[in-house]
């Protein structure tokens, strides 16, 4: 038996009911960008020892299709995804939230400049990030080679946090060729850690410059994937799709 999966997004959070880390999985069984039709299922997976996971709770489908090309952000026990405007009825972007304590999905409107989406070939890519304990929405603009970063305030409104300008940055930080996303922000001076595929850089907002912290380019492991993570407490791994498909094909 072999399972064909059209798309999958997985977020790690902490379940206060079981007092364990949990994985929230959203799987596309089918999706068609021409007709905008899709079929998605979601569930909570309980994290076990040695990389083993079991389905603990089947959820209702999310209210909007979520983008699976960027990981969700976790803020205060709530997971957030950027929606996928290529699917479903809405042609605007929004943020889909999931509160693990209440087992409920919800929708958070995006800032107008991020909600607007010009079509399936639009080069402006949107994502979510947890920075300084708050939810941020990020719009990558290849034409301006900049990241427009917005912060969700306590009252529910959005305020512009910063604009990260990448002109003059070292090779590898060009938004026309690579995805560049913020990972963390220094609370003292506002410097931002950036991930750019095989590079990790530090952006200085005062100087508007990027300094390389780590790069796999030109090394023996340059062909490997660099997956940066910000560790705050113990984390659980998620089995890769290829290994899972191999196990299913042998069953």
From TrEMBL:
The organism's place on the tree of life at top rank: Eukaryota
Official protein name in the record: F-box associated domain-containing protein
Species the sequence originates in: Triticum aestivum
Taxonomic path: Eukaryota, Viridiplantae, Streptophyta, Embryophyta, Tracheophyta
